[in-house]
């Protein structure tokens, strides 16, 4: 039992920020040497609870600083200023395969930070906290405009930074899960890039041999033709299947000329007409782990030597940044990146390629402080529902997300801006 004249004080600064901005969490007015649990809780848009927590002991002044003090247990340990966000996980009893994604970027991600007496490990919502603060995490900075695009047959969303412009532009391409994902494009606009989040699939089936590259070229031109965009400063940002599209556009297109490209967990070879055909052809290479999560990486091995079965990466004409993890269980991303490097080297274009590899990192490399998803539900025609193993270990994967985002922004600013763009603040 605590005998305190005044209750503990919990502060979070800033309490309203972009999702890639760090915050500081401070607990004051505790007894010295007091064990407490600092807890974060988020209710997702699909009505699932996510939580993270760390165990701390107050110092001689009765304070706990999450930024400076060590967590002795919980969903993260050690000195981890942002562990309350990147170690978020579904609360016990949640269904398998959940993934946390912000679908409505016009509203903030609300995270409740609370402090509890003692070192707790469960039933946080049944406990009365000593103090709590509601924080807002935004993908859209103030002044960013969101515009639905339904022209020239396009389906997408355009995000425009605040200010008079002109700005550089980016075509933002996600992977084979399909649908319209806006959160990364909104965040890129918050950093000064006119960004088009493009929808090009509506299901988990991936018709790689039937992708309409005219569609992507039209989307690129929509950005390039926008009055607030500098026409010769438009790049492409792709992840997974989005990288495959990016490679094709960078190496093959005679219609568009991207200024630079960023590709995360990408592949440049796919000799199959669809993902279903790839699975049926390589059933002997389809493995599962101890949880019966599917592992797809071996289905892409060995990498074909036949140039007709992959994009000729020696034909790229712009700077390219490759980001991938050594523990990618969806695609052999590192081996694929090395094959790309060999093709680029043989063409005498080493100066165009930058590779960044991360140990302990999986396929889904997202903006910083995003929770790590080792395995999530993935829709595919071969089965109604499967859980795919993406790979990665939480701490190194989260470190990679933070470091790679800094490198990605620096790369984009270097190649798309004549001078570095000042960071947007909430």
Automatic annotation (TrEMBL):
Residues 212-417 form the BAAT/Acyl-CoA thioester hydrolase C-terminal domain. It comes from the Eukaryota. Signal peptide: none annotated. Coiled coil: none annotated. One of its GO terms (biological process) is acyl-CoA metabolic process. The active site is at residues 240, 328, 363. InterPro entries: AB_hydrolase_fold, Acyl-CoA_thioEstase_long-chain, BAAT_C, Thio_Ohase/aa_AcTrfase, Thio_Ohase/BAAT_N. Residues 20-151 form the Acyl-CoA thioester hydrolase/bile acid-CoA amino acid N-acetyltransferase domain. One of its GO terms (molecular function) is fatty acyl-CoA hydrolase activity. Belongs to the C/M/P thioester hydrolase family. This is Acyl-CoA thioesterase 16. The lineage of its organism: Eukaryota, Metazoa, Chordata, Craniata, Vertebrata. The gene is LOC115429083.
């Amino acid at each position: 039992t605590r005998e305190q004249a005044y209750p503990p004080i919990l502060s979070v600064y800033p309490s309203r920020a972009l999702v890639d901005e760090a915050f500081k969490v401070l607990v004051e007015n505790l007894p010295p040497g007091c064990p407490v649990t600092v807890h974060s809780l988020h209710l997702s848009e699909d009505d699932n609870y996510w939580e993270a927590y760390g165990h701390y002991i107050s110092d001689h002044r009765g304070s706990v600083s999450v930024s400076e003090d060590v967590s002795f247990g919980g969903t993260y340990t050690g000195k981890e200023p942002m562990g309350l966000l990147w170690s978020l996980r579904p609360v016990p009893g949640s269904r398998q395969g959940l993934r946390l994604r912000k679908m409505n970027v016009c509203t903030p991600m609300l995270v409740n930070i609370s402090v509890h007496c003692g070192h707790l490990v469960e039933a946080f919502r049944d406990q009365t906290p000593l103090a709590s603060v509601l924080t807002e995490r935004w993908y859209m900075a103030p002044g960013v405009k969101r515009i639905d695009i339904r022209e020239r047959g396009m389906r997408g969303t355009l995000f425009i930074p605040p200010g008079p412009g002109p700005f550089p532009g980016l075509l933002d391409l996600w992977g084979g899960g399909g649908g319209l994902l806006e959160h990364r494009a909104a965040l890129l606009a918050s950093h000064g890039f006119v960004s088009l989040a493009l929808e090009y699939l509506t299901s988990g089936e991936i018709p790689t041999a039937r992708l309409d590259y005219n569609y992507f070229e039209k989307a690129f031109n929509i950005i390039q033709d926008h009055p607030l965009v500098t026409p010769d400063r438009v790049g492409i940002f792709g992840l997974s299947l989005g990288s495959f599209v990016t490679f094709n556009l960078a190496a093959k297109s005679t219609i568009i000329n991207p200024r630079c490209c960023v590709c995360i967990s990408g592949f440049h070879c796919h000799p199959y007409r669809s993902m279903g055909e790839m699975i049926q052809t390589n059933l002997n290479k389809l493995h599962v782990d101890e949880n019966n999560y599917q592992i797809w990486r071996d289905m892409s091995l060995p990498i074909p030597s036949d140039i007709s079965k992959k994009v000729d990466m020696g034909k790229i004409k712009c700077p390219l940044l490759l980001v991938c993890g050594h523990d990618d269980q969806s695609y052999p991303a590192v081996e694929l990146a090395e094959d790309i490097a060999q093709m680029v080297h043989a063409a005498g274009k080493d100066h165009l390629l930058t590779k960044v590899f991360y140990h302990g990192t999986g396929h889904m490399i997202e903006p910083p402080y995003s929770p790590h998803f080792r395995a999530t539900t993935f829709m595919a025609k071969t089965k109604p529902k499967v859980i795919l193993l993406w790979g990665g270990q939480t701490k190194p994967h989260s470190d990679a997300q933070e470091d790679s985002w800094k490198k990605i922004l620096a790369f984009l600013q270097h190649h798309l801006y004549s001078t570095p763009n000042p960071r947007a603040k909430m």
